[in-house]
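Reopening this ticket.

The earlier resolution said the output was attached, but the attachment link was broken on my side. Pasting everything inline this time so it's all in one place.
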Amino acid sequence: MAKAKSTSSRTTKPKAKTTGAGTKPARPKARRAREPVPLKYPATGALSDAFARVVALALELPGVEESRSYGTPALKVRGKFMARLRTEAEGGLAIHCDFVDRQMLMQADPEVFYITDHYADYPMVLINLLEVRWDAMPGLLEQGWRMAAPAKLIRAYDER
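Inline output:
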């Protein structure tokens, strides 16, 4: 006798092994150490020296780390963007700054503080590091840090 063929057109997949709760067990993901993205636009000359001063001042704030952003050197607070050195062709340091303070800075010293059309809608200001008064930089960096830092880190910093 010949076997009857199944008339069902559906195929069934083998069931995945599950835990007692009926969910698939989580597979541990292999974590590779991430290499830092190479700098496409490293600073040179006087701009490099000026950015080194910025980094030294910024690293005094908790949670600040050197990083990369758009192929340029950057500063982040626990992985969140705080500031970046723009390319030599673009010039300047782009740093978080609220709109009111940005307007006051640009009116007070337009040779040092400015924006491009790209930054018009972002809470950022561009700083000419070759012209800035360095006694103002710690305050500017702290302001940018406060915009990027988590609330818990800011509270701990203020309570010290």
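Reporter confirms the inline version is readable. The domain at 61-159 is CATH 3.90.1150 (Aspartate Aminotransferase, domain 1). The mean pLDDT is 85.
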